[in-house]
Design a protein that fits this description.
Blueprint lengths: L7 H9 L7 E5 L6 H13 L14 H7 L6 E4 L15 H5 L1 H6 L8 E5 L7 H12 L5 E7 L7 H4 L3 E4 L5 H10 L5 H7 L4 H9 L2 H12 L4 H8 L4 H21 L9 H10 L2 H17 L6 H16 L3
Parallel strand pairs: 1-4, 1-5, 2-3, 3-4
Helix pairs in contact: 9-10, 12-16, 13-14, 13-15, 15-16
The protein binds zinc ion.
């Protein structure tokens, strides 16, 4: 795995700075541009025992091999834990951060780097963030923390002040397009448009059942019974449905005010029709409601009832009732 073309420059710069790297880096940037892959790649290169001339990983030494099998003894990745169904818990718990102290106490393999990747860093709650803070205050040897986030504002200022923040570049549209073409996506533009031009999110959309978005949008605009739509979609990830609706409403509003469609250019006829008759104040309220629901969507709610109510509200808004 190589770094993405839009991250090449920053990658080379960091590897050149290797001897003088700070003990905590914070990679911030928009979702879906490959920050986590970048962090892993950087960690692998720093841990490699016979790096290439430019500092990147050789991919064949013992360290590289360990890294690729997720068994490198000097590397830890902290992420929200998964439950028995494989679903991620929302937060990084304090125990996960505390468990680092024994790791930090050990001598590293052949005196190299010790690297801790925290992803997403915004998943730390106040307790775990404070526990991390203590560790960051006492830097040890060649320990490097790499924090990754697309929600910088959710991190404690005290954490931010102890990290060197790196703004991860967003690819230019033609760069993103070329990359997807190379990945074998013949028609990348609609997917890029739907994902806000974040190439990795676009790729996810391609592999995702794209038909279900359109089916959902069609159903909520039809006269089908909301109860049966909610039943049909209650197994679909709620935050995904909310994000479909957020993009859809963004297009309705943007069409109404600026005559522009960003996410669903393929459904422009329907967007123009609905945005013409929708109640604009209710549309704004509905968007706020979606944003709020998105923020709390990891909490347990009755998905079916919630969807049913959402569909009814949407219909009232869309029909200007
Ligand atoms: Zn290597």
């Amino acid at each position: 795995m190589n770094v993405y073309p839009w991250h090449k420059e920053i990658y080379e710069r960091l590897l050149k700075a290797k001897p003088g790297l700070p003990h905590a880096l914070l990679l911030k940037g928009r979702r879906g541009i490959g920050k986590l892959d970048f962090a892993r790649q950087l960690a692998r290169s720093l841990l490699c025992e016979s790096p290439l001339e430019d500092g990147s990983a050789c991919l064949s030494c013992t360290a590289c091999c360990w890294f690729d099998h997720d068994i490198h003894p000097d590397f830890r990745r902290i992420e929200p834990e998964t439950d028995e169904n494989g679903k991620k818990a929302g937060q990084i718990a304090i125990d996960q951060i505390r468990s680092l102290s024994s790791f930090m106490g050990m001598t590293t393999h052949r005196n190299g780097y010790r690297i801790i990747l925290i992803h997403p860093a915004d998943a730390m709650n106040a307790h775990s963030a404070n526990a991390l803070l203590k560790t960051l205050e006492e830097p040890q040897g060649k320990t490097l923390f790499i924090l990754v986030t697309h929600k910088l504002q959710q991190l404690l200022p005290t954490i931010l002040s102890r990290c060197r923040t790196i703004s991860m570049p967003f690819p230019k549209p033609n760069e993103a397009q070329a990359w997807l073409l190379e990945k074998g996506v013949p028609d990348p533009i609609p997917f890029l448009a739907e994902s806000g031009y974040a190439p990795l999110s676009a790729l996810e959309l391609v592999s995702e059942d794209h038909a279900s978005v359109e089916r959902f949008l069609k159903e909520i605009g039809s006269s089908s019974d909301p109860v049966s739509i909610a039943e049909a979609f209650q197994k679909t990830d709620l935050s995904m449905i909310l994000s479909w609706l957020q993009k859809w409403c963004h297009d309705l509003a943007s069409q109404a005010y600026a005559g522009k469609i960003r996410y669903f250019p393929g459904l422009s006829d329907r967007i123009i029709e609905i945005s013409g008759k929708a109640d604009k104040i209710e549309l704004m309220r509905f968007q706020r409601k979606l944003g709020h629901a998105q923020r709390i969507s990891t909490h347990p709610v009755n998905a079916r009832l919630f969807l049913e109510e959402l569909i009814l509200t949407y219909r009232r808004m869309a029909e200007g009732r």
